[in-house]
Amino acid sequence: MLSAIGSFFSKLFSSPNGRTFLIAAVAVWLLISKFQACNALKEMDRLKEQNLAALKDMETVKNKNGELSYQRALFEGTAKDLKKSNDSLYQALKAEKGNVKIITIVNTKWTSPTISMDNLLIALNDSTKGLKWSNKSPWYTIEGMSTFGFKQTATSLDFRAGTTTISKNELLLSLVTGLKEEDGVYKIFITPKTPGVVITNIEGAIIDKKTLLGNNVSPLANSSVKRGGIGIHIGLGVMPLLGSNGIRLGVGPVISIGYQYHVFRF
User: Fold this and answer.
1) Residue 121 phi, psi (nearest 5)
2) 236-250 pLDDT, tens per residue?
3) Which pLDDT tens digit goes with each residue over 72-120?
4) What pTM value is reported for the model?
5) Long-range pairs for 207-210 at CB < 8 Å and ≥24 separation?
6) What angle do CA 165, 166, 170 make, to 5 degrees?
């Protein structure tokens, strides 16, 4: 087997056509290496722009419905990189179990509008009365009662302070959130649907680069894309052919099994 392979390469190097084939093969290999280097440089530039954008403050914009939306570029890197750049996100990451892909911290503030409530006077006993009140909306519900005591004589009416008990205090917090690409930068966006809610700060990081997939690198996919693999090749090709007159190049249909590396994806 080894002698046959040695004989093949010996004839390949000694034949003009064989040398032409080898030169073409080396040229293709150099071209692939050049593309790989260019792709690596492009990825480095993209990562630099992404993390520079992550240093900027949170943006407040309006979506297509005219609603206020809050967004900020995500930091991209490993947990070690995150430790150097954002300690609060890093500490949050350490507290989680499993393989965290993307982590975010969102701070919100809710401001209640002025509420006017009608009181319902209720007699609790002979010396204590209560003022029952409630306010309900699609987003917020509050109910309770304030009590006061009194003592009435023939000549006076004395009141004493009681207590206020809040029996229900519920807030429905509705947020639309997700990831998007804008001008080549990946951002997390949050749009509050509950009136009075304001996002005060957003911090986020892409930890697992395996989530960055697709023709254009995107954090919205969820599985890795492999550039290399073994497969069956069917097509038209050029190959060195051994014959009685030495090695010559032949062109024709080819069926083979081999390893391929994807330089581009379409």
Assistant:
1) -75, 125
2) 566 666 666 666 666
3) 999 998 889 999 989 999 999 999 888 888 999 999 998 887 888 888 8
4) 0.62
5) 207/77, 207/78, 207/79, 207/82, 207/93, 207/100, 207/101, 207/102, 207/103, 208/99, 208/100, 208/101, 208/102, 209/76, 210/101
6) 170
